[in-house]
Amino acid sequence: MRLDKFLCETLGVTRREATILLRRGEVTVDGNTVKVASVKVGEESHVEWQERHLPMPGPRYFMLFKPDGFVCSHEDSNNPTAFTLLDEVNMDKLHFAGRLDVDTTGLVLITDDGQWSHRITSPKHKCEKTYRVWLEDAIGDDYEQQLQDGIQLRNEKGLTLPAKMEVVDFSQNELLLTISEGKYHQVKRMFAALGNKVEQLHRESIGTIVLDESLEPGEYRPLTAEEVASI
Ligand code: URA
């Protein structure tokens, strides 16, 4: 692919603007400043604009360890958005494939591929999400069965779909919960319906994609091809 076409697609600029960036010496290919628009770049090329790596044009997929206090939206008047944790070009094209509440931590997937994120968020696909939950009060003996049978949430018509619960530590009121829907505040509302309260919530996995243990809160990385294909 020609370098000017590559810049148009990754940066969303016009051919003329791409030529100007090149003439100014803002673009390097494999460490060398390139000013010629017709130079060919491919999968193996490392292209940088203003010292920022530009990925090959095409859909983008990332996992982020969302910290407490960040919102999953492009704008918010009260809290910083989780997008501020990403250093990517064309940020306005990216969206969250399923949001977390401002005080929930853990795995969020970010992409510009709407069909892919639809398979995560659409109720039809029943994509499983696993949460680590800390409750205010003791885990009830009947919770596992009730969550399996379905919970009646306030202001919802039917019961929740069967959910799997696994106790991690009774003394800490800590458990893992796997659900296959994503209703508004679903986990908090499920435990509220059981007469308890979620004190802390952390998402560990979406489908078979697990939050990378090497990521610290606020860090992110591209998904591997296998992770993308797993959805
Ligand atoms: N359920 C909740 O209640 N909050 C979240 O952030 C995610 C699931």
Automatic annotation (TrEMBL):
Lineage top rank: taxon: Bacteria
Database matches in SMART domains: S4
Alphabetic keyword roster: Isomerase, RNA-binding, rRNA processing
Family matches, as CDD domains: PseudoU_synth_RsuA, S4
InterPro entries: PsdUridine_s_RsuA/RluB/E/F_cat (IPR042092), PsdUridine_synth_cat_dom_sf (IPR020103), PsdUridine_synth_RsuA/RluA (IPR006145), PsdUridine_synth_RsuA/RluB/E/F (IPR000748), PsdUridine_synth_RsuA/RluB_CS (IPR018496), RsuA_PseudoU_synthase (IPR050343), S4_RNA-bd (IPR002942), S4_RNA-bd_sf (IPR036986)
Reaction it catalyzes: uridine(516) in 16S rRNA = pseudouridine(516) in 16S rRNA
EC code: 5.4.99.-
Claim: Ligase is one of the keywords in the record: no
Positions of the RNA-binding S4 domain: 1-62
NCBIfam families attached to this UniProt entry: PRK10839.1, pseudouridine synthase
Official protein name in the record: Pseudouridine synthase
Annotated source species: Vibrio algivorus
Gene name in the database record: rsuA
